[in-house]
Amino acid sequence: MKTSSHCRFCGESLNYTFVDLGMTPLCESYIDADHLNMMEPFYPLHVYVCPKCFLVQLEEYVNPHEIFCDYAYFSSYSDSWLQHAKTYTEMMTSRYSLNDSSHVVELASNDGYLLQNFVAAGIPALGIEPAKNVAQVAIDKGITTITEFFGVKLAKSLVDDGKQADLLLGNNVLAQVPDLNDFVAGMKLLLKQRGVITMEFPHLVRLMEENQFDTIYHEHFSYFSLIAVEKVFAAHGLTIFDVEQLPTHGGSLRIYACHTGEKSHPTLAAVTDLRTSELNFGLTQMATYASFAEQVRETKRKLLEFLINCKRKGKTVVGYGAPGKGNTLLNYCGIGTDFIDFTVDRNPHKQGKFSPGTHIPIYHPDGIKKFQPDFLLILPWNLKKEIISQNSYVYDWGGKFVVPIPEVAVF
């Protein structure tokens, strides 16, 4: 399929499809009962790959202000994510000797789930979070938070006020930035000369290896490999000097970057090793990307086969969680209340509402014990260990857990 769109980083024409997931609503646009019969906007979830810089990306169909100004995702509702953030702050504090003279800035700081650890340690911290409803939770915790979108304009304003960062971080934000060049140029400005940037994002290789197509949604504009993100950072005078592979979100990268030429942060072997691994995987060969779409179709077939068999046998299925990835999965596979009676979520901002597109009701987790389903379908499969541990009582009535990605597995 041809398109007139261009790569958001290098400007190359986007003519190569990575995967087409059809038309879906915004994944965080939960619906209340009064609006169930009203029209919902659906947008193409068609992903392309740039043949020049190998950035996998969506076109921008919706202004970020519409997506993020009132947001339903709160990081603090995952215990394992809170622990991940705490471990990170301890490690960064030790590795870079952060103290009360340092300055930490987090981009897309959400509800303060991470910065609260720096604040508790007496390390000055600033959050930047455009979603005002989410940012207010952080402000109520005593975390200084600016409710604006980040880019060159805000970075210049902060620098003019004498606020630069020793540590500039962003977890799962880089993928959500439509104007990559403005965002990364802003980071370059805000970073002190010997400062460090860390960014975490799902790793494209893991997405492809494990059929994690449900991590694709309109809020995620880009899907990164090390090869692609190095090109973006280098174009703005930033060098990636270290990288870690993390288990979070089905397999993520944490990159460390500094000003190009800054000798206090020499490039480590981990960067060369991962780059070589990605080259061997074939990330600079278009044929590698072309094979992904069929993997996705087969994953859909297997999940539908499982659910159809469950219903034919009179089994009940309930969902656990109402994450963005779950809504991509449900809409692409055409799974509604004909297969799943309801889903549950710990986030009170989602309870009492309905999933976008599929209109599956979202209840408090107490609904599991009342209904006693035969199967609990874990939609945030990246948290499966945490969820199975918290809800092990399902086994009391002979219930089982189901994970849909990378393929259907019953626990």
UniProtKB/TrEMBL annotation:
The keyword DNA-binding does not apply. Gene3D superfamilies: 6.10.250.3100, Methyltransferase, zinc-binding domain, NAD(P)-binding Rossmann-like Domain, Vaccinia Virus protein VP39. Keywords: Methyltransferase, Transferase. The keyword Plastid does not apply. GO terms for biological process: methylation. Residues 7-68 form the Methyltransferase putative zinc binding domain. It comes from the Bacteria. One of its GO terms (molecular function) is methyltransferase activity. Residues 247-406 form the C-methyltransferase domain. This is Methyltransferase domain-containing protein.
